[in-house]
Amino acid sequence: MNRVHIKTYGCQMNERDSEAVAALLRARGYRLVADESACDVLLLNTCSVRDLAEQKALGKAANLLRRKQHNPRFVLGILGCMAQNRGAALLDALPDIDLIVGTQKFHQVPDYLDNLRAAREAGVPLGSTIVDIAEEAGSQNTLSAHVLEERQVTAFVSIQQGCNMDCSFCIVPKTRGDERSRPMDEIVRECEELAGRGVREITLLGQIVTSYGRRDYPHAGGITPFVQLLERLDAIPGLRRLRFTSPHPRGFKDDLIQAYGRLEKLCAYVHLPLQSGSDRILRLMNRPYTRERYRQIVADLRRVRPEMYFSTDIIVGFPGETDEDFAQTRDLFEACNYDMAYIFKYSVRSGTPAAGLAEQVPEPVKEERNQILLGLLAANSDRRNATLLGTTQEVLVEGPDKKGLGFMGRTRGNRIVHLAATERLVGELVPVKITRVSTAVLYGETVPAGGEAPLATAVPASGGPKTEIEAKAEA
Ligand code: SF4
């Protein structure tokens, strides 16, 4: 009755939360199993960002509940954003669920499972569900444990939870609550410990990560708390690369832009959500920047780091988006030359301010706009790939690739590279000559020490073509 499987939906923040819950459960004597059919306890860590994401998890939970017919001891729990969003109302659709735990109560999961397990073993008929979606002061500090696999090279570290920006399309302020940051010393300690255990690249996570610590720490010489944190992490011996997600354009003040010029471990890759290139639509979305300000941030970052790679989020078909609004998005999209983009067709998200807006854009129009942006991305991909062939890139070797075709790693620009390597190179930064490319992946060979090919940054300055594109258009 102690085998647990956790299935995670949604973003990297959810992945990190699941990992932390897994670490707590392991410390409590539970065994994590990869095979969901071989578990006694199944936890669904859910996503609420779109109605569709919730429907998927609901369908999965309904299916899993059938297991109780032949195994009444089977425990099914729903954690995370959908639990927070729907709470006890989930019982209308899933009356036999055992556990509903919101986003500020992940750390209570081991206690709740212990209670359920004790009741099962004592033969007590349960019949009631544990529901805990309360807010809890300090809950952002409760999830610092990690489950590291052998020779794990990369890790996520959550530094901040919640968001107060109230973008009109977004459910996150409801599911994740107010902005709360972790103490800087604790984050530094956690990262030092990870580096000591062999982690070489850390991605800092938060719903609005660039706002880190703004209520808790003063600016120091014009440096925001987020950049102060980056400075301290940059100094950790053994750590080689730093990334972060998800930021807000508002967070890219001069101190952060300049940090890219002086913090060597900060990777030349920025995810910079645009959402729309129309100032009118940005106002409707309650996004506090203009297209001009956004364009300036991109230009400033490229000036400081000419090799910078960019990805973005775009919503096409936001209510009221006209042909002219979309033309502005398209224009800015082309000007920014994104390396990756996550393009979403707007869909009504109940519980958000935008859900009540009139002037919904017809589905075929959304689809057409979606396809236009995807086409631009594909063209960018081909052009950028052509420029990378034959160059040498610095790759952090992460381990064997999942298909057993050798090893995989990433460039500083976050491009996946497949290469021939040896176990000895896992965790090393190695020069790799790119010998073949596909749309999303590069293939290469390590350059021997003293080899002829120089370690090239090999990325064109602003306006040049870009490489890999990961375009995700949701149906
Ligand atoms: S900043 Fe991001 S998380 Fe916060 S409300 Fe806007 S889209 Fe949602």
Summary of the model, kept short:
The protein is α/β, with parallel strands linked by helices and 475 residues long.
How does this structure look, described?
By secondary structure, the chain is α/β, with parallel strands linked by helices. It has three domains: 3-132, Rossmann fold (3-Layer(aba) Sandwich), CATH 3.40.50; 139-386, tm_1862 like domain (pyruvate-formate lyase- activating enzyme); 392-457, Nucleic acid-binding proteins (OB fold (Dihydrolipoamide Acetyltransferase, E2P)). Helix content is 33%, strand content 21%. The strands form five sheets. Strands 2-1-3-4-5-6 form a six-stranded parallel sheet, with helices on both faces. Strands 15-16-17-19-18 form a five-stranded mixed β-barrel. Strands 12-13-14-20 form a four-stranded parallel sheet, covered by helices on one side. α10 (254-262) runs parallel beside α12 (291-304) and α13 runs parallel beside α14. The chain binds iron/sulfur cluster.
